[in-house]
UniProtKB/TrEMBL annotation:
This is Late embryogenesis abundant protein LEA-2 subgroup domain-containing protein. Pfam families: LEA_2 (PF03168). PANTHER family: NDR1_HIN1-LIKE PROTEIN 3, OS05G0367900 PROTEIN. The lineage of its organism: Eukaryota, Viridiplantae, Streptophyta, Embryophyta, Tracheophyta. It is a single-pass membrane protein. It comes from Nelumbo nucifera (Sacred lotus). One of its GO terms (cellular component) is membrane. The chain crosses the membrane at residues 12-35.
Length: 195
């Protein structure tokens, strides 16, 4: 009996032209937006020009840091704009959070536009209170290379013509290596990828 009534409900929906038109519009919009968004996403992220000023440990095992880098956020799509409601850059050292920078002023990025960000991380952290983390730091200090992972947390919405998608959160993971030994003081980046 329940199966017959559900079939009758479906038949009634299909015979109601208003409901059918609304469903066709929603379905067509969804398929069209799906075809517009490339498989790798709409936006590309690049980290470059890191500048390493300070990264050392005091006698009480407190990590003192001061570094910066540039981020390019590039909208690759020619038909979709992106609203950024908030961006947070969080720096990690061996899985421990050492600092964060938040961009809380919303902005819109038009089609094929690029936005440049320059987060500055400065302060101190107790991330090395664990003896194994301190051993990692001492080893990397001897080797002359520190690896920092920066995660970008983005709250975005996409705009196509007069349609706006609901807000969703993305996580982008970027790697930076700071080489700080006696014969070179350089930095390299390992690129960014969406998680």
């Amino acid at each position: 009996m329940a199966r017959i009534s559900s079939r009758l409900g479906l038949i009634n929906i299909l015979h109601n032209p208003c409901i059918l038109i609304v469903w066709l519009i929603v379905l067509t919009t969804f398929i069209y937006l799906w075809l517009l968004v490339p498989p790798g996403g709409v936006v590309e992220y690049h980290v470059y020009s890191p500048n390493f000023v300070e990264f050392n440990v005091s006698t009480d095992n407190v990590l003192h840091y001061n570094f910066t880098f540039n981020i390019t956020v590039q909208n690759l799509n020619q038909k979709i704009g992106v609203y950024y409601d908030q961006i947070e850059a969080v720096a990690y050292y061996h899985g421990e959070k050492i600092g964060n920078v938040t961009y809380s002023t919303p902005f819109f990025q038009g089609k094929t536009a690029a936005t440049f960000l320059n987060p500055v991380f400065t302060g101190s952290s107790t991330a090395l209170r664990d003896s194994s983390k301190l051993e990692d730091f001492n080893r990397e200090e001897k080797e002359g290379t520190f690896r920092i992972v920066v995660k970008l947390y983005l709250w975005t919405r996409y705009k196509f013509m007069f349609f706006n998608t609901p807000q969703h959160q993305q996580e982008i993971r970027c790697q930076i290596w700071f080489h700080v030994n006696s014969y070179r003081n350089t930095t390299t980046t390992g690129g960014c990828r969406m998680r």
